Amino acid sequence: MALTGRADPTATVRRRLDRLCGGVAMLGGAALIGVMMVIMTSVIGAQFGKPILGDSEVVDQLTGVLVFCFLPYCHLHGGNVMVDFFTRPLPARVNHALDAVMNLLFAIVATVIAWRLIVGGISAYTRDQRSMFLDLPEWVVYALGSVTSILWVLVILFVAWEAAVHARTDSAGTPTDPHTFG
């Protein structure tokens, strides 16, 4: 929503986050294509008695990374599940305030996930945990997941800040547009 009488202070940050999150999501898409190629090659190879050794390890590790690559972009664009049946008729200001509070609560959950990924990565690194067949280091997956989950937390906090800014500046009587999401 446009703010009254002045430029939106969140627009520049949103554009930069959008570019960063879009790039990370593209990396996640490349990882997804990699997963599909490994599975396809292994299945075809199995038909000729030559499956890929350790294909499940590659698929597991890439899948672990790619899931976290999509979360920041999804959250920035309001792609999370939202139940707004009761809040839709409320004024925009109230909905923005509720969005800010819910995003702050969600940031707590995402921060716990990021924290546990960091702790798990440190543990995997210090123990030198590796995959069984290919001897791939497991800490790399944790490190990539940690970085993308930290980005996810930052995006959630930005969306909360953006909602709080709009809650302060939107007119109190404007109902929420039922066609918007996030």
- Helix coverage percent: 55-70%
Tell me the major beta sheet. Answer: none
Shape, please? elongated
Reading the helices and strands in chain order gives HHHH
Helical segment tally? 4
Q: Strand pairing plus helix content: what structural class? A: mainly alpha
How far is it from the N-terminal to the C-terminal residue, by CA? 12 Å
Number of strands: 0
Count the domains.
1
Cα radius of gyration in angstroms: 21 Å
**Binned strand content:** under 5%
Return residue spans where pLDDT drops below 50 for at least 5 consecutive residues.
Answer: 173-182
Mean pLDDT, all residues: 89
How would you explain this protein's 3D organization?
This protein has helices at 11-47, 55-76, 92-126, 139-169. The two termini are 12 Å apart. The chain is mainly α and 182 residues long. The protein has one domain.
